[in-house]
Amino acid sequence: MGTNRSDIHKGLHVNIVLKKDQRSGRLTPGIVKDILTNSSYHPHGIKVRLEDGQVGRVKEILSDEE
Hints:
Layout: E1 12-18, E2 27-35, E3 47-50, E4 55-64
Antiparallel strand pairs: 1-2, 1-4, 2-3, 3-4
C-alpha cells in the first residue's frame, strides 16, 4: 500500500483513489507525476498527481518502470 512517501517516486505505475471515488473505492491507474503529500507517512495513502492531471491517494503500487 502507498502509505510511505519513501515508496513513491515520479514514473511509478500506481492505482489511486480519486476524491469522488472514496466512497466506492474505485481505483484509477496511472503514472506518478508529482508527490503532493509532504509528510513521510499518511494512513490513507500518499497524495499524488498523475501524468494526466488527476489527483488522488495511492492505494496500490503496480510496477516500477524506472
